[in-house]
Amino acid sequence: MNDPRAVGPQIRMRLPSLTPLEGKVAADILDRRDITEATSLREVAEGSGVSEAMVVKVAKKLGFAGFREFRSGLIDYYGSDSASLHSEISAGDTAGEVVQKVFRTAMQALEETFAILDLDGFERAAEFLHRARQRDFYGLGGSAQIARDVSHKFLRIGIRTSVFDDAHMMMMSAALLTPDDVAVAYSHSGTTSAVIEALELARRNGARTIAVTNYADSPLARLADVVLCSTAQNSPLLGENATARIAQLNLLDALFVAVAQRDRKAADANLSRTMRAVQSKRRG
Known about the structure:
Number of helices: 13
Protein name: RpiR family transcriptional regulator
Distance between the termini: 53 Å
Number of strands: 5
Radius of gyration: 21 Å
Domain SIS: 125-265
Pfam families: HTH_6 (PF01418), SIS (PF01380)
CATH architecture of the largest domain: 3-Layer(aba) Sandwich
CATH topology of the largest domain: Rossmann fold
Strand content: 5-15%
Strand order of the largest sheet: 2-1-3-4-5
InterPro entries: Homeodomain-like_sf (IPR009057), HTH_RpiR (IPR000281), RpiR-like (IPR047640), RpiR-like_SIS (IPR035472), SIS_dom (IPR001347), SIS_dom_sf (IPR046348), WH-like_DNA-bd_sf (IPR036388)
Number of domains: 3
Low-confidence stretches: none
GO biological process, one term: carbohydrate derivative metabolic process
CATH class of the largest domain: Alpha Beta
Order of helices and strands: HHHHHHHEHEHEHEHEHH
């Protein structure tokens, strides 16, 4: 974890893989913004009411070599500009404070999503989408709205995609995919059964698979050829999903541009055609 901004996201992405007790220990440590190089393993263990061995185990499950590396990573992270962007919304906040906190939390999600982005995977995803015969998108609820936004952008440059937000329709789509096609699954948690099952079937049929999720170790991510991860810090009022949506939209905007760049002449020509087609619908 060479980029301090990536430490917080890498920890958050692994939290679902912890047991309830391990998760409590991790949360206790993450809440300690006063942690320094002088903070001892014993002190941390006593603060959580667990053994020193348990703290070391949690550190390793979160991707660190041991407690010392975990401690150093947190010190670097909390010293970074992105970590300081987030602050909780309170009942007494003024309108100006609410706006500032919401915007700063979104800025943090963008900074940290960029810090953890797998550029090689991003390039592979762009290539899959560019070369595909058929491009099917799967998502439910808010994730389906993300898929529709991306589908709209691709249509503007002449790249046709299909969005499926019904479990039965997803399975029908996946059953018809071939090695010439690509399936893109959208799920914040990476645990949505209908989306997982559809992507699994698409994979069995030889289609390339892409997962857009917040958790790199989730069941959905483990199925995909490429994983595009967003990250966001949880907030009691905003929730994690709402903030992650901003990061996902920006990440997928970048993917859209990367695909368009692979045949810029065709993209520009199709963009002109689709813009002219809707121009007549505008008044003034």
